[in-house]
Structures
1.
Amino acid sequence: MIAQQLFSGPSVDWWALAPYLIVVGGALKLMVIGSLTSRWPKGLTAWVTVVIATVAAAAVVLNWRSIGTDGTSSLVNGALAHDRLAAFLHLAILVTTALVALLSDGVLRGTENDGPEIYTLLLAAAAGAMVMVAANELIVMFLGLETLSLAFYVLAASDRRRAESQESGLKYFLLGGLASAFFLYGIALLYGATRTTTLTTMIDRLRTVVTVERNDALLLAGLALLLIGFAFKVAAVPFHVWAPDVYQGAPTNVTAFMASVGKIAAFGAMLRVLVVALPFYRDDWRPVVWVLAVLSLVVGSGLAVVQTNVKRMLAYSSVSHAGFMLIGVEAAGHTAGEVFPTAGMRAVVMYLAVYAVLVVGSFAVVTIAGGAGSDINEFDGLGSRRPILAVGLTVVVLAQAGVPLTSGFVAKWGVIQAAVDEGSYWLAVLAMLAAVIGAFVYLRIMVSVWLRTPTAEVERESVPMLTGLVIGLAAAATIAVGVYPSLLLNLVDALPLTHR
Amino acid sequence: MIASSTSMVAFPLLSMLIIVPAIGALAVLVVTRRRPEYSKLIALLSSIATGAMSIWALRNFDQHDAGFQFVSQHPWIESWGISWHLGLDGISLFLVVLTGLLFPLAIVGIDPHNDDPGRDKPYFAWMLLLEAGVMGSFLSLDLFLFFVFFEIVLVPMYFLIGGWGYEGREYAATKFFLYTMAGSAFMLVSILATVFIARDNGIGHVTFDLVALAEHGSFAASTGRWLFFGFAIAFAVKVPIFPLHTWLPDAHTQAPTAGSVVLAGVMLKLGTYGFLRFGLYLFPEAARWSRSLWLTLAVIGILYGAIAATMQKDLKRLVAYSSVAHLGFIVLGTFAFTSQAITGSVMQMVNHGVSTGALFLMVGMIYERRHTRQISELRGLQAVAPVFAGFFTVIMLSSIGVPGLNGFVGEYLVLIGSFLTARWWVVIAATGVILAALYLLWAYQRVFHGEPDEENSTFAELRVKEALVLLPFIAAIVFTGVYPKPVLERIEPSVDALIEHVSERTGYVEPQPAHIVVDHAHGEEG
């Protein structure tokens, strides 16, 4: 089959590919022009990045209507899926990237790390993430994963003069490389079992092959290795140990990016592999996801409580959030591949979009108020020094805790609803109790910000305008979606639940 | 309760009861830093407007209609089957009025405890937001909507306790938030399970509408019990029912005075109200089945609260523990399943809000003057401030349940109404009435009697402004104590409808002789 197509080449729908091309092309141009021209005016690089992301997002929106809702269309000879799941996640990735670009300017402006490199890497990572969530082909997915990961490794170490940043980059590189190896081996085994790496072909093969002839051991081993790779990327327990160190050491704007786009990419790909390609094995992978979810919830929120560093707190809380999303994946697993599946997948997708904005907003405040070490004490009295900033932080932090009338509540409600609909009552109860433990962490931040007075004289933090803008946008989106969830739900409900 | 009636009011009264304080909260926030005095004015005006609307609802309330009145229903989150559905019936009516009146009094009655007037602004914003949340909880007829309001009240209360409370406020605020949130965790799962199980058993589509679920949803006995317990845990924490009460003394003691007033006055009622509105109405079988448990815990709460109150050295903590005891009576009446007892419970919810709210206000006034709440440091106040002592006496007697004052009517109805269905529990609970007299009178003796020492001899007499704030409380205490009929006759039809609903679903027959006694009781008091 491959031999036949060697000479004809796949037909390419350039318009549908436009979002990818804009991001990749933009990244390359930014790098080349940026390195050839003299120093740019302050903030321009960030704005160019925002424009690139926005134009790409506009292309996604323009494509949205033309995407078939049956989820069968694909691009480049089946390499990339062309469906609304991918389009929605692309939007989430691009919006988040734009927010992080603005945030990065607030962090970098005036420092010697400022320059086009960071922004190029942001765009490169975004491109990788976009490929990853749309990949209909395991090799392409791996390419996306590696593009994303390599950009992350460099970004994590991008604060070159700080040892912690270098350490963070190196740690992430070594552990991430190991996870990639697992992932790649998983692909190889899946290929061995099904003789294809294309997800849609894989499910066709699995459908036609009689059960006894399936090479189950090979396939299950491949599935297990893939799950390890995904669990590592989403920082699910017990594959989470890198996250706190990397999150803490990396520059805060990069941490925000890893926590948001990294999660979107990994969960998007995970949904595609598990729900689209391997629904016949749902009874095999669902218990694994269940265990990962429970461990992430309990360990994530439990360990967040004992941290004194805000970035580490947020890292562990992001582990716990991953647990919540895994609940949605678990719920999707009950009916994966059926004609009328339940809403687990939509719940995950919504959670991803909501969480991405929340986590960028939270880390944005950390870039201002965290000082050098991001210790929780640095936040003491922030409410009296910078009341408006503190209000913004309060909104996004309470949303992470799942307080009603914020987007975080809607997201949590969505996954719990999906779990309960499948009868996973105990999982739902456990998740909510983990949320209570998690709330303690967020309340500690609130106590520090509003109720404590700093022990020593603290200078009033200066708020870079763009960082302020990011926090404002994040808080506004949080409240808007919280008060009127249909804003987001209508979009998510347009996603097809089945892909075949 | 059975048929929702829509009264012909074009004005979205119930929605405005929620929206006006919420808008007031936003308005307070935009007040400039230079004119902080406006924030109190705005807070007062919007809470008075809300109070006036609640009075208006009371005036236009049709007392012969047991169903929901002033109903307002709009789609909200359509794809999840969630709507903005509000309604008022005899059970919620007086709680809404109480909320509407208590907030302006709490706002005007006592200033927040801090030295920096610039920090008043968020205080008033939080108070108004709290009012919106409490109103919403009492009015919601949609499970999602109810949960949203039930949870959202934690945030303003957390910040009120944490920001304007006393020494141990951080601990108290966090404990309050986490306890209540943990309870709600079970309720959230229960709400969702209720909705999905009802979808598959009788309803056919996803809806969070309370009336639809209660009337058309059917649950297998064991399923209903699980679901009921999910709700019950949340309510039991909120009430609080022994042994889930440990957050309450801390929260009450550390909260600023207005916070305590609101917490005791209306927020605890979210739990007892929740039992009636969601527990008994949605899961009558489960509520009947588990009644011995709740009756027992209620009686333990009555005795434990009273004994613990007797032992307290801190006046505010004493009042806090007395709440545990009083709420025990309300739970007792709720699970006695007679019209009288439940009517008494609803009445007692309002009474407790009035008398304990006023007690907390007066304790706050004592603290303002003396900067201590320790009973041992107060002495002989009656000699230096006789009017103050007089007001305190009336309120205290109402809390004890002396005949002629409001506390008596509620407690008496609960005890007599429960006697037929929960005799031995009532026998023990009745001793709680005596214990209430013991701890309150003893505290009164220690604080007000005797010769004032040097520090207490300068205790200031009740000011006119304070008297004006307390007078509405006194008026309510005396009026409902002497003439409870207008209150009872508005509560009863809805309670009867609820009992009828329980009977229909469970085949339970309410014992009848009780009715003869209730007329007798009315005759005595009226």
2.
Amino acid sequence: MGLAGSETVHAVSDVSLDIYENDVVALVGESGCGKTTLGKTAIGVQRPTRGTVSYRGQDIWETKEESSGWFNRGGSDGEYSETDIRKALQIIHQDPGSALNSNYVVESILSDPLKRWNPDMSEADRRERIYGFLEYVGMAPAEDYAERYPHQLSGGEQQRIALIRALLMNPDLILGDEAISALDVSLRVEMMDLLLELQDQFNTSYLFISHNLANAKYLTQRAGGRIGIMYLGELVEIGTPEQIIHNPQHPYTKVLLWATSDVHNRGEGVTTPPVRSLDIPEATDPPSGCRFHTRCPEARETCRNTKPALKDHDGDSRRTACFRGEDQHEYWQSTPLEEESTVPQQPAQSD
Amino acid sequence: MAAETHSTNPATMDTRQNDVIIEVRDANVSFSMDRGESRVLRDANLTVQRGEVLGVVGESGSGKSMLASAMLNAVVHPGQVDGEVIYHPQNGDPVDILSLSDKELAKLRWNEISFVIQAAQSAFNPTMTVGAHFEETLRAHGEDRDAGMAHARELLSDLYLEPDRVLGSHPHELSGGMKQRALIALSLVLKPEVLVMDEPTAALDLLMQRSIIGMLEDLQEKYDLTMVFVTHDMPLVTDLADRIGVMYAFEMIEIGSTDNVLDNPSHPYTRALLNAVPNISDRDMEIRGIEGRSPDPVNIPKGCTFNPRCPLATKECEVNDPDFRDIENDHEVACFHWERAREDIPLVARGDDSHSEPSTDGNGSFGGL
């Protein structure tokens, strides 16, 4: 295997997603489903090979191209400059420890973006702003925390610093990529509550990437947001947490719910998983038609050939990419794929 | 049938209650550090019944992995283990695992008690096929190769793997979920009585995690195994475990039947932890975190280790370390104020918000596939 043979992997394929002002969207899926790629594409960190990403209606990558041309140092023709867009779209990572520069104390880490984006701000104003934030997130006395290095902070405190650094830009959207999964169980709720409180305070929108439906429900339910379910690079269902958790429509959403253990709903043992195969196909060679058809317990011949569009079947704004949402679809006359790949005994290449 | 493990009739339950397979007595683990002595397991006392699944739950740094290592006398150098871990074989005299020689220990592990660790990736030698690992294990323990490999194939099938394909593959040719399942099969190839697992599913996706839980239920049933399952993920273990032990600050603080611990948690920490974990069935979303931080193993609070974070702590808690007390049948807790805890720390977010059951065939065991 050599570099020349490297394949193009469409980590994310034909996804359309609007994020509104003051919105909270959680993308949930198994590893390799493309949720991180979609998140990074949404904030303009990763360029889509096809399709567009717009900030308030303005194409982000056109703006970036225009402002990087030497002949056009004045920036783009659009209303927003590349700088505006970069400030507006921020990210907090899974591992706060490696996201913070270990050679600088908290005050320097937080001063840096302010100096860069707000060069006119006086040192006293900067300090006041930073201290205010530290106290707001419960890191008091601020002057003590301001002098600490990242390794002198707990994981939860490091994550708060990463959050403050993002918020200092007054962003419109923050991408939280598994932002709480590195924290200890008892600290996760606190961090989620803080995120929601700040969202309320600063009218920031969030795009959360998570593999945990219970956390996604907690975040989106409190903020009136949406949960999006991803499978092999595609968005297969998106709706309110009530719709997704309590009335799932896509067979894959049902699989994720099956896989989510619940302290309060202890059954008489684990039931059979509602899939025909445990292992996920290779992302380099996704199945034809509906990508879930190789594992879906409801799959029929139609699903092998035709890709279902993500659409609103019931007029309640939830969108599902499954033929089962359409009463009149040819799917219902098509032959079930039942016995053809009754897996667990014959797992696919990889999960 | 996996379903029946939870509905064992009272008569069998009683015989099980008195059939101890592992007894941990005053087990302590410490490491000497420049800053002082680091006590990473403190006064662990517990019994594991033959044929039960004990879930050990705790946050990172609670000592749960140390407890698992101590049970197998597998604490890494320069850690010091004291106390006793008595193993009661089906036939034969009890042995203290902590006082065995290396040679005796090597014989006991795999044959009697097996260990599955979190990092399956590193447990396999990348230059050897999976099959060679099975053969080498059988050879090292003087077992018959053909009979052993036949059993290996059966175990791999029990774990929904294709024996031919998996045995002929090198570790890198298998996905994480397949490797972890192959490792579980390997750990069972010498037909041990006990399987101790430390976060065996932590690096895997949700679907694979829960599927493995289902497979473990079936294996436990089929081979009459005793299991100890260590995890930070409380919801994950609740379907599998007959009993649950909760650890905090290097100590066991509550232990009992799964229903007692989850429905009637009586240590303030257990109650707070349950309140801090969102569940998809939650209706009331008023969950909350636990104030403060877990203590440093070099500097453990005097008295009850939870007292600096506990809303119910009194003077007594700052001075005396509470012993375990029986509060009901199959339920022990180390707290002076367990009665008040039940009253004063309400369990929030108790779910009556059950989602539609997505399973395809209702209630069949995992083996129905």
3.
Amino acid sequence: MIIDVHAHWGPWFFTMDVAEVNLAVMDRYGIDLAVVSATEAVIYDAPSGNRALAPVLEGTARLYGYVTVNPRRLADAERDLREYLPTGRFVGAKIHTDYTRSPVTSPQMREALAMLAELGCPALVHTWDASVLDLAQVCLDLPGLRAIAGHMGATGWRHAIEAARACDRLYLEPCWSHAPAGRFAEVAAAVDARQLLFGTDATLIDPASAFGAVAAAGLTGETAERVAWRNAADLFGLEIPPGHGSPSAPPER
Amino acid sequence: MTAFDAEGLIGDLTVTLDVDVLVGAYPDRDGPPGTPAEVCETLARHRITAGAVAGLRAALFDVRSGNDEILALDRPDLLPVGAVDLRDPVGAGGELERLAGSGARAVRLFPDEQGVEADFPSVRHVARRATDLGLAILTGGDVRRFWRPFAGLGARVVFLDTHFYHLGDFLVTAADEPGFHTSTRLLNSPDALETAAGHVGAERLLYGSRTPHYEPVVPLLRLATSGLTPGEVAGVAGGNARRLLGLEAQS
């Protein structure tokens, strides 16, 4: 059982043709469920992309959705969150700091994350290098916020370790097109296993990158299970098919 | 077994020549020591039977002694690749002649590590000299810029840092340059290998891992799960590199 907490649906502007391949790419690696954001929503127009994604989620049980939030358009975001979260097919919010030019430290980003904290909505936030530390600080400042540090800082995975150890409501997922040797093993050895998730960035990046990085870490037992799906099921309250156990009770920390 | 069963996905895929292997360590990074023994152990663990290996001593500090270390490696699983310092184009010319005379089949360029840009005269000079000497060129650097100094020379080049973001740029220049090839290390989008094979042929793709600094399993997984034919996969996994480096008769 594998749940991918960082995936996308829709076309990309690079030399690639992957708009229709979500399930096929998941099948390559035995990924059962993925939480996707619409590329249109992330890159260009959040409401339009969220609206396009909604019927797709109705058509398959294997994809859940992120409501993409543009911190510069908070009224739109609030409307979309109140419309789509109650459907149960959208289970979190996605914020890309670069495409919206809204660093984690910006006022609009803080306001967006405060809104998500109030709604009890998990937020996947793009992080790179030391910005993951900024996200940890916002988590500390907003007690209701549960945030996933997308890419776990990419080049800044050692910052991600520090960030996750500072706040137990900050989760890390490893996707990145680069795979420096030992990166995920180092993080897994230093961070509470309850804060580790699996994300791929598919269909931009093939799951080979994150899957290989996690496989190389040689996780075993409960830690491997937590990374593969259990933490994600807990965080998003996902229904898990029979045979995979039930989501665990939230840890008391 | 966990859900992350890479071996199960890779199956019996064997890489017969990895075009991107290093020995030595980067002084500015935490990371593996990169001893030949450690590198070979990593390759073997991933069923990579041979690697085209260059040395960071030559790339970062002293070309001659660094290359001597590489040329002295007497292991069937390591194919020596020389390096030159692009910061010293005059010395690089002499070192290329020495490498060619010693039987090296390829030279590796480290423009990023040496702070050299694609339009520096040094790169064009080394590209000409290496090609004239019959050496294949393995080069780092952004392919969107580093295609230019190798164009129009009939050079045999492997771009080691081609990212799938820049695949289109590689493809349009490779269409005009039959000697242009790319490592698959960063071609890890869901369809980059298949797209490249469809446009310029899978024979332009060479498995590269950058062992021991990158996870070899990532490009292995991508290749193993690709839509390439078994023959194309075998080519990417080493056949193409052996042809490029003139090793076919020995394999």
